[in-house]
Automatic annotation (TrEMBL):
GO biological process terms on file: D-ribose metabolic process; pentose-phosphate shunt, non-oxidative branch
GO MF annotation: an example: ribose-5-phosphate isomerase activity
Gene expressing this chain: rpiA
The family this protein is said to belong to: Belongs to the ribose 5-phosphate isomerase family.
GO cellular component: cytosol
Role according to the record: Catalyzes the reversible conversion of ribose-5-phosphate to ribulose 5-phosphate.
Ribosomal protein among keywords: no
Pfam families assigned to the protein according to its UniProt record, in alphabetical order: Rib_5-P_isom_A (PF06026)
Name of the featured protein: Ribose-5-phosphate isomerase A
Subunit annotation: Homodimer.
Binding-site positions, substrate: 31-34, 87-90, 100-103, 127
Top-rank lineage group of the source organism: Bacteria
Length: 255
């Protein structure tokens, strides 16, 4: 079967991430088309090599996919720790900070990533940016009083170093889209975010905001799949959670 260039890139990144998987691991399974590739390749490896791994899914969509492909799952509440999470991203920058949530799964994705020893992002080159923000930033909010929360987010943006300030409510087939956790999503059209850590903290301080799609200092590695099947790895050498200023990043190119 010949793959489209986009799928070639996603599958190359996923195959490289699969080499990090060891027998006996508990794995966080991300959401989206790239993470879907990882789940498919993982299922093939489980069947081929009979490795015993357990997945923790980050969305109902990933639960369905993993179940269909025979990848064993457990709930996050039933495990003490996740060894490795592999997930996609909507944008990543040179500090390995991310925008996630294009697939509306940012809340479970962030909880799973935070519970993981290591978060590895798989992506193609289109997700690499000099500054985060061209992709609308998803912010998950509770439904109660959501228009007040939107106003509070708007007021916050007025004092933030961003390029644009438009906010939209994400819609599904019948009004506002409801996430797996029963919330709404605001999409913040910011163009460019000049201080992502500050914006992430400020958003989380607003009552009614559950989480934003800014993943700051959470990823330890980004694997970039190329359309020719090669990969590039960007790795954070220091432990996740250390400040960006201290983070030294190492690049290595596959041949
Ligand atoms: O954050 C996500 C879902 O909430 C996805 O990881 C992100 O949207 C990337 O998806 P894709 O791999 O399909 O481009």
């Amino acid at each position: 079967m010949s793959l489209s260039p986009a799928d070639q890139a996603k599958s190359a990144a996923s195959a490289r991430a699969l080499t990090l998987v060891e027998d006996g691991m508990t794995l966080g399974l991300g959401t989206g088309s790239t993470a879907g590739w990882f789940v498919r390749l993982l299922s093939e490896r489980i069947k081929r090599e009979r490795i015993r791994v357990t997945g923790v899914a980050t969305s109902s969509a990933t639960v369905w996919l993993a179940e269909e492909l025979g990848v064993p799952l457990c709930k996050l509440e039933d495990v003490e720790r996740i060894d490795l999470t592999v997930d996609g991203a909507d944008e990543f920058d040179a500090n390995l900070n991310l925008i996630k949530g294009g697939g509306a799964a940012l809340l479970q994705e962030k909880i799973v990533a935070a519970a993981s020893g290591r978060m590895v992002v798989i992506a193609d080159d289109s997700k690499r940016v000099a500054r985060l923000g061209a992709f609308p930033l998803p912010v998950e909010i509770v439904r109660f009083g959501w228009t007040s929360t939107r106003r509070a987010v708007q007021e916050l943006l007025n004092g933030m170093d961003v390029e644009g300030r438009e906010i939209s409510i994400r819609t599904g087939s019948a009004g506002p889209l409801v996430t797996d956790e029963g919330h709404f999503i605001l999409d913040l059209h910011l163009g460019q975010i000049n201080d992502a850590p500050r914006l992430a903290s400020a958003l989380n301080a607003i009552p009614g905001v559950v989480e934003s799609g800014l993943f700051i200092d959470m990823a330890s590695m980004v694997i970039i799949g190329k359309t020719d099947g090669k990969t590039e790895v960007i790795e954070r050498v220091v432990a996740p959670g250390t400040s960006v200023d201290q983070a030294e990043l190492m690049r290595n190119q596959d041949s």
